[in-house]
Design brief:
Layout (H helix, E strand, L loop, with lengths): L4 H16 L7 H19 L7 H17 L23 E3 L8 E3 L2 H15 L5 E8 L2 E8 L2 E7 L5 E3 L2 H4 L18 E9 L2 H13 L8 H10 L3 H6 L3 E11 L14 H10 L10 E4 L1 H14 L7 E8 L2 H7 L9 E5 L4 E13 L4 E13 L2 E7 L3 H6 L7 E5 L7 E5 L24 E3 L6 E3 L5 H12 L11 H10 L13 H6 L5 H14 L4 H7 L7 H10 L11 H5 L6 H12 L1 H12 L20 E5 L7 H10 L3 E2 L9 E4 L5 H7 L5 E3 L1 H10 L1
Parallel strand pairs: 2-11, 19-20, 19-21, 21-22
Antiparallel strand pairs: 1-6, 3-9, 3-10, 4-5, 4-7, 7-8, 10-11, 12-13, 12-15, 13-14, 13-18, 15-16, 17-18
Helix pairs in contact: 1-2, 2-3, 13-14, 17-18
The structure holds 2-(butylsulfanyl)adenosine.
The site of 2-(butylsulfanyl)adenosine has 15 residues, from strand 3, strand 8 and strand 11.
Amino acid sequence: MKYSQDQVHQLMRSTHTLLGHNEFNEKAWMAHLVGVLEFHEYRYYVLHEPLISDSEYDKLYHGLKKLESAFPGQALPNSPTQRVSKDLTDSFDTVRHTVPMLSLDNSYDLGDLQEFDRKLRELAQVQRVEYAVEPKLDGSSIALVYENDKLVRAATRGDGEQGEDVTANVMTISSVPLVAAFSALGIQKVELRGEIVIARKVFAAINAEREVNGEKSLANPRNASAGGLRVKDPREARRRGLDALIYQIGYAVDKTGADLLHTLFTQHSNNMLALAKLGFKVPRDQSKVCMGIEEVHAFIAAWETRREVYEYETDGMVIKANDRQVQDQAGFTAHHPRWAIAYKFKAKQATTTLLEVEFQVGRTGAITPVAKVRPTELAGVTISSISLHNEDIIRQKDLMLGDAVLIERAGDVIPYVVKSMAELRDGTQRPIVFPRQCPACGSHTKRLEGEAALRCDNPTCPAQMEERIIHFVSKDGMDIEGLGRDIVKRFYALGLISGLGDIYSLDLRSIGQLEGWGARSVERLAQGIEESKTRGPERLLYALGIRHVGATTARTLMQAVGHVLDLQNMDMDALTALPDIGPKVAKSIVEFFGNKANTELIAYLGSKGVVLEKQAQSGQSNALQGKKFLFTGTLVKMGRTEAERLVEAHGGAVLGGVSKNLDYLVAGEKAGSKLDKARGIASIRIITEDEFLQMIAAG
Ligand code: IVH
């Protein structure tokens, strides 16, 4: 190990200090930054074990670049911005690329893209540019040389001029043709550029296997592909499940040595098609040719939402002028083409410090550990709290207070802690202790057999009640405008609301006296409460927060009965006969309605005008109220779904199978086993389709 444990700690302290600074405007930071970047490059390129995310590295790197441009000519010789050779190790032969492998300029928003487009139009002297847009694959770049149809060399990018010869390893990759019919196109020698990647699925499988073998798991598919390309033993390389996708032709000549790029390969999208026909894997299905930069931006926006389901990891999109002519007009800088640009997605990962763990009591009494972390930006939002779910997860991830942690937010999903960096511990970290008492009411906490959650079993626990009220008034619940989470908390603390019933007997006069409350806001609240009364029994049932009863179950239940309180009469058998209701859910419902306090609460809500009964809407009636139906055989006058909808519209319910809870079996033509079974149960009436329609008409 090049760095001692002490150096690692010191460098990580510097890293975090630097990351916390937005402006690196002092020359003194320069040497500091260079040292830190060198360290992270070593971790990344040599050990393949980064301690910070890529975007954090980029942030530091850009900070250094900015600083260096403020002090021209004074960049340190060991600065990573000065160094050309990025990943050359001495174990592979160094080879020179036929033409240099350039990098790409980066963009981050529509403004950047518009600027790129504006410059390109100016350079190419055109009104509009046709762009080819494709995923930016997150792996390691490769250059493949084919001569006389045979793969003769594969090299890594290296410093762009020279790379490492990894031919033996690349030859193990099944998606790289060893022979391709270039000669049929008159091509004698060609150099293709692409990316070595590992599919997410393959990556997950590799890590699972490594775990079984007691090996360290690989950080991400990109590190795994970079590592896989460089393993010494080609058989081991094959075991890594590498894949190659081609995205560019760098060089092509015929047997006289004449250039073909400008005669044969004149359009990027066509080039990709030609390569696909020759047997190469290209990201064609994920690509699009767009007219103008606005269309490009729309495609990128649509793509970003699909990003997580794509087979390979991507860190952005690449936008290329589709026509060779435009490309030639624009040309290159020393670093990148002026006709192409990368659009980087917002960073999904960041590192931060786990400061504290809070234990929050939910409405069902489950106690959830919530990590308080040093506020950090992640995919466009500042993160300071992250749910840790339960004790098992904390143990699995080996988390301690004070740990450096890697956090991630994929797509629009809630952030989570990926792992702790145990090797950065300096002895000040402390274990996370689970409370033996409920942090809100002090009663003993329990962990039930087979359950991951720690719970507070006190039904009168104030924290649970508060959460229940918040759930009740929430958007998906009774949706009471003017009564959000914070207001509930305030009213609860003031004793203005202590239970769900209190919402409908609120002392609006006292509220009008509170600081920040005027006649207008009181009026709005009163109106919000009034409106909530008509949400209907289905929403009410969900809002009551019965364990395991979500919106879907609430709907199923209210399809079976006409009045919320009818549910008191349903036993385990009746409930489990309903679609998708299992014993666990049924038990919870029976328990809830078996508790007098709950039924009294519902009756009280009813007395205040909250609608507890299903309303008959136009085209609906109560003709089939409370009756349970099942259809079998072929119906002649309507489809199965239509028939089921009719039952529900008229107050009945549809069951999933024949049981003694069934009232009517509607038997169509060619009815089979259900009819036989129903005949064996005396309480079931078997009727025809016409009789069914007559029942509705009669109602
Ligand atoms: S084109 C001259 N297309 O991104 C144009 N590059 O930051 C050269 N990359 O080193 C690049 N997906 O390894 C191109 N569809 C794609 C790409 C792609 C990933 C990588 C490539 C390059 C880096 C530039």
